Each structure stands twice: as structure tokens, then as C-alpha cells.
Amino acid sequence: MDGLDPQLALTRTTYPQAQVIHAAGVLDYLHAPLFRVQIDAALRNNPLDLILELSGVQLCDSSGLSELIDARRQAEAAKVRLMLAAVPGNLTRQLTITGLAAVFDSYPTLDDALQQDRPPTRSS
């Protein structure tokens, strides 16, 4: 499923145990709702893992950060592991300055995130 706004390109890819959302462009107050739609759709598929691949994100404002926080809360409630992958330097700085880097599992590449060990079943 693709996002329709030219300033924020969103695609979702399904792997055996993970849903991956690839984001590129501007994640701001105008575009954060599109990101939310993709997150909700991915979580409806009941994956073990949800990976947000953010290498193409050029700008992320407080609305974008709020969506990341909400995604974490929603994933936690669904017992889905949320991971960030390929976070660009500017967003890494924002996450660090705000203290959010400590609450997200972040990996240098999508492949690194996909290779993380996960218990074979999810506890209820």
C-alpha cells in the first residue's frame, strides 16, 4: 500500500514475521496522519515485528515524533515489537535530544532489524 502525498512516500512490505513501513520525505503535521494510516494497517495484520524504515525521512517535526511515540504505544499494547531501521542523522539527533532514543530499538539497516532474534511465539 502506498502513501499518496508526493512529500511523504510510504510503502509497506510484508516479511514472514514482520511488517515494514518504508518512509521517505517530510514527516510533519500535514503528513503524520498518512503515516498513522500505514501503521494502523500494518498492525491489523498482527505481525510479530513492525519495522519503520526511515532512511528517506528528510524532516520530522514534533507531530512526526508524536506518531513514533504513538506507534510504540500501540505496538506495545498489541505485543508487537517495534523497531526503527536506517534512521537518518538528523532524526537520530532529535531522538537523542528528546530522550526518545532510549525507548526505541534502532538498527543501522533494515537487514539488521530483520535479523533480530525473536521468540517463536508471542505470549498472551
Characterize the largest beta sheet: strand count, sense, and whether it forms a barrel.
5 strands, mixed
Q: What structural class do you assign from the helix and strand content?
A: alpha/beta
**Count of individual beta strands:** 5
The fourth-level CATH homologous superfamily is STAS domain
The overall pLDDT average reads 91
Name of the level-1 CATH class: Alpha Beta
Fraction of helical residues: 25-40%
How many structural units, i.e. domains? 1
Adjacency order of strands in the biggest sheet: 1-2-3-4-5
Order of helices and strands: EEHEHEHEH
What labels would you give this structure?
Transcription Regulator spoIIAA, 5 strands, 5-stranded mixed beta sheet, Anti-sigma factor antagonist, Anti-sigma_ant, 124 residues, STAS_dom_sf, 4 helices, alpha/beta, STAS_dom
Give a quick rundown of the structure.
This protein has 124 residues and is an alpha/beta fold. The protein contains 4 helices and 5 strands; from the N terminus they run E-E-H-E-H-E-H-E-H. It holds the Pfam family STAS.
Reconstruct the topology from this structure.
Elements: E1 8-14, E2 18-27, H1 32-44, E3 49-60, H2 62-77, E4 81-85, H3 89-97, E5 105-107, H4 110-114
Parallel strand pairs: 2-3, 3-4, 4-5
Antiparallel strand pairs: 1-2
Helix pairs in contact: 1-2
